[in-house]
Amino acid sequence: MNVQEEVQTALKDNKAILGYRRSIKFIKLNSPKLIVVSNNLPEKVRKEIDHNAKVSGAKVETFNGTSKELGIICSKPFPVSTLVIKG
Predict the structure, then answer these.
(1) DSSP letters spanning 12-75
(2) Tens digits of residue pLDDT in 18-33
(3) Could you give the domains of the chain?
(4) Does the first or last residue of the chain, that is N or C, have fewer Cβ atoms within 10 Å of its Cβ?
């Protein structure tokens, strides 16, 4: 299953968390199945997500598109830079 299908399935099953701040909180408190980030995510933010993912043991996938395109896939009228799929 590719990243796009996995994201859409998680959204349909209500197992996705959208947004950088909410994602970081979830990663620190829980163990996510997958973390999806857009390819235009700022380097500072990417390093923080990578660090927290390493601590929690989660896998980080880079979406091959911008945050605006990730928002479109999520059926949202706004950009989505970070998305967490609950485990």
Answers:
(1) HTT-EEESHHHHHHHHHHS--SEEEEETT--HHHHHHHHHHHHHHT-EEEEESS-HHHHHHHTT
(2) 999 999 999 999 989 9
(3) 3-85 (3.30.1330.30)
(4) N
